Inverse folding.
């Protein structure tokens, strides 16, 4: 791969930050956008725009076709069985809320158990907390070990005959741990327990195959996959979409409405109420093509090489502590520097054009577990290089010298 050529496709890297080249290491938060995605959205608004699924004039038909083409691309990209299993939401958070709300309403009752982990992003905890509050359910947390990962045996020992669903991250946005999803799903199947996977970090960095993973639900956000904001994807097995009630009511998700009865169509229409983020969905089609043109296996290989190079150099610095050391690790490095608050680290690094994130990364339970209030985090994308890791290490040295003074 020619990473310089790939990077040249992203207009933002022509900008300077404080007079310095931009070193963007905040991809777990959101990735940058290639010009082809930006241009696709612009073309849709300037030449093809209409609402979808309603009118029959030429613009409406074209817009609807473009919108539905993206659904077909997503279906193929994640190897879903059917296009009806692909639901467009505004983000992964809404996708998880959709499942928690509809599944929780129909299948979870007082005393039933919801199994998640200590690694979970708040988006895969708070929706289940709402169900706990509403239904009197119990949430159980599978513990992460000292390496920052959750082992299959930890899941196994917490499953009981009251376990109604397992919600679990594919790839931790703090430790970078890649969880054994297929093994967890296979275990859950023996107990007839559905599994929801938070794939926000998995989708941009791992090969997705819903037939291989076997999970019942998989949620991810397009803005972390070089795509637009305001779009999320929920993959759900059709057997669940046929059973679960609608999530929101409004235009576009009905079959027939009269004064004493309303009927609803099947998926995906039943779950896509109102006017959707049409241009952004169409724009995401180019994000998928961008990833496919490079090849997800090539992306995985490149990111792993850069991440391992960065880890090797960071570990040489005695003041830097890396959070987590999982056996299977994605391209995320969370760390602390002795005596320096992560927010100060991020601020000083920004002076050199190095963009990282600082905070608890919407994972307060995990940060409580490791005994720190916040961490600094460098997270990689396809456009990052070993030279970017050198910039990071040099900026950290500068940060240390400032605080030593």
């Amino acid at each position: 791969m020619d990473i310089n050529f790939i990077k040249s496709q992203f207009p933002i890297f022509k900008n300077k930050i404080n007079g310095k080249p931009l070193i963007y290491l905040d991809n777990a938060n959101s990735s940058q956008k290639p010009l082809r995605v930006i241009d696709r959205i612009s073309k849709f608004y300037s030449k093809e725009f209409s609402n979808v699924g309603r009118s029959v004039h030429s613009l409406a038909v074209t817009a609807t076709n473009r919108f539905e083409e993206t659904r077909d691309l997503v279906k193929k990209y994640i190897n879903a069985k059917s296009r009806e299993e692909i639901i467009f939401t505004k983000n992964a958070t809404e996708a998880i809320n959709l499942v928690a709300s509809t599944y929780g309403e129909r299948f979870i009752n007082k005393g039933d158990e919801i199994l998640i982990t200590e690694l979970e992003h708040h988006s895969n905890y708070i929706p289940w907390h709402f169900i706990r509050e509403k239904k009197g359910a119990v949430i159980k947390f599978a513990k992460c070990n000292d390496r920052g990962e959750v082992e299959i045996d930890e899941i196994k020992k917490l499953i009981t005959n009251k376990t109604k669903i397992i919600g679990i991250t594919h790839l931790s946005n703090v430790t970078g741990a890649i969880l054994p999803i297929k093994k967890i799903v296979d275990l859950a199947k023996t107990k007839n327990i559905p599994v929801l996977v938070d794939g926000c970090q998995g989708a941009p960095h791992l090969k997705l195959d819903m037939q291989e993973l076997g999970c019942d639900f998989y949620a991810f956000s397009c803005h972390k996959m070089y795509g637009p904001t305001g779009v999320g994807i929920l993959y759900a097995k059709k057997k669940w979409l046929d059973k679960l009630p609608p999530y929101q009511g409004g235009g576009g998700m009905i079959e027939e409405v009269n004064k004493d009865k309303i009927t609803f169509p099947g998926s995906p229409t039943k779950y896509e109420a109102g006017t959707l983020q049409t241009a952004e969905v169409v724009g995401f089609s180019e994000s998928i093509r961008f990833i496919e043109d490079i090849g997800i296996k090539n992306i995985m290989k490149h990111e792993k090489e850069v991440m391992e190079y960065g880890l090797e150099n960071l570990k040489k610095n005695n003041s830097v502590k890396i959070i987590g050391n999982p056996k299977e690790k994605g391209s995320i490095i969370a760390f602390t520097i002795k005596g320096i608050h992560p927010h100060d680290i991020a601020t000083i690094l920004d002076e050199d054009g190095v963009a990282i994130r600082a905070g608890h990364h919407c994972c307060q339970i995990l940060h409580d577990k490791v005994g720190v209030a916040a961490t600094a985090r460098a997270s990689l994308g396809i456009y990052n290089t070993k030279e970017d890791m050198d910039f990071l290490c040099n900026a950290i040295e500068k940060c240390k010298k400032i605080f030593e003074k």
In short: The longest helix spans residues 58-78.
